[in-house]
């Protein structure tokens, strides 16, 4: 439940953003920062959250992070000023960065048997896309019938309910306290936040600076006696491929819902409520949790992950055929039905691989890596593909196409590139995971 809520909080605010803008008189830049704030602090601090989990214990960090997440969600819902809403949005992400790695570590402790743990992580892998879908659908409904404040109050209520039962959680042991890597944590957080901001704003100097900061972080990890991020976790080829799958699938999920929301409302003139209804096929993600666990047990992680990537590629390829007047019952509906199935399978297989062969004392850091890929993917991926869609739209306008047709052509180009990325990744995963199985 809480993993779904953490991810849903990213997209819950999307459709009500115009209402927030109108109430506080925000500029487009201020609105973009408000939208991205949660993901920036969430993604940037996940590795620090993983280290804290390994040092102080999963249950302790889960409870502390959930208290921060729930408390700041309530603050955002009751805020009377824009600056308070913005601060609440960023601090929500801080709490989420504490909770997510702790939750992954708790799953490791709840399922010490490797076979049961793999099945649990197969189910876990579907929860993120479930959260994104739930957030998107609730976002439209909230915009239609309620106040934007419910985008903060709903997570607060769920966090309170989960905290009420925290004593049932296992008291996972903490590791001996050593250096917490404050400088390393600052470097990776600043690097990831700067990278996300630079890509969103298209500022090459910021992007270049962020890359230098992240390289500096990696150099320190190689030479550190007690690194924040043990490099051997990244040197594993299977884990690296799995993190790429998670990054790409999370990015595609965000890009798909964002562009289709604009397409439905601005090109085809649907209301926010009807846009939410249009995304109902995404509820098929709910079927992939048991399906993924069963298929992984019967056919192996490699086949399940590759199948998921190919289904997602097919979905994106179908969306690349959209026109201004495309009927919902054609390629759009088929794509919306295929994508949650493919994304769920890909997430499941990749999560199992990313968390395999991880020592118990490093489960928090490994969980932080998984969630970092999941959070950075939407920010960076959306920015890159939006830039591509915009460039294609402008080129089509220069060729004389009407605005609606040119804009739709830009969206189609972004979907085409995403389909190609899924196909290439499926090939790489098939090769890499096969090598891992043979070792």
Written account of the structure:
With 439 residues, the chain is mainly alpha-helical. The chain has two domains: 2-166 and 228-438, Up-down Bundle (Growth Hormone, Chain: A), CATH 1.20.1250; 182-227. It is 82% helix and 0% strand. The chain is built from 17 helices and no strands. α1 (2-11) runs antiparallel to α7, α6 (114-145) packs parallel to α11 and α6 packs antiparallel against α12 (272-278). The radius of gyration is 21 Å and the shape is globular. It starts with a helix and ends with a helix. This is MFS transporter. It is found in: Cell membrane. GO terms for molecular function: transmembrane transporter activity. It is a multi-pass membrane protein. InterPro entries: MFS (IPR011701), MFS_dom (IPR020846), MFS_trans_sf (IPR036259).
